[in-house]
């Protein structure tokens, strides 16, 4: 569990410059770090920085007005939800409730025999959905305010799963990475069908309760199905707890709630994204310099600047909540916080 100790003293004790928070505040006040709602950093399970601001926010596009953020305030994770779904799939896999990644995908959706009979789709596997290499036509590079965005179109479709699976095949499965909330929707359906429970109910029992997470929301589409791609809302400390679970190899209170085998498998980068990053099972991967040495990180990224960054080798977790929804430069401030406030202020490894 993440300890909630004194920030400045803990920062120095855990190898960070004790002025790290002051630098964060200076960046925000100068307008260099924009739309920031919350920043939390931990190392070795100890909270070393925690900052919240009052700011305008929304929930899945619904304006909430100005919110006084604190340790208890729920916030959209947007696509960081996908990384949580990766954990849920691993938990269901550990229990023998879902097929393994190499299992055929369309077998899990027997209601679409016409699609299963298409030779171009026969080779699709669950693993191709987990690492977004389905090879199906999909466009999430449009604004999420645009109804032609594929995820929004999926939410508006009469049958979300057919909508995803019937998209044109444009690449051989496993050969090209294309960002796809539809892929996550399919994995969510497999979890629900395998466990016999709604994804939010399985999450509550398997993941949230063992971590002491009591309050969450999971937004649903028009069809009443909770969105595995972007619907989860958590407070920042609880998302940090999930990050710490990953750093701890799936173990909490000396008990594995998800196997270390799945943690290692899901975090293994398997495909290049085309923009310098790599991708595992709903996790992004890259390296960053720390005291002159490259260190591997993994992360969940979400629209508007939502981030869960993890640096396993150094035991660092960082949660950033932001309000730059649909902004093309929404990635800039959280990236600067990670590089220039967190990693640049690490004084010992």
Automatic annotation (TrEMBL):
GO terms for molecular function: hydrolase activity. The keyword Repeat does not apply. Pfam families: Beta-lactamase. InterPro entries: Beta-lactam-related, Beta-lactam/transpept-like, Diverse_Enzym_Activities. SUPFAM superfamilies: beta-lactamase/transpeptidase-like. Keywords: Hydrolase. Residues 38-322 form the Beta-lactamase-related domain. This is Serine hydrolase. It comes from Shinella kummerowiae. The lineage of its organism: Bacteria, Pseudomonadati, Pseudomonadota, Alphaproteobacteria, Hyphomicrobiales.
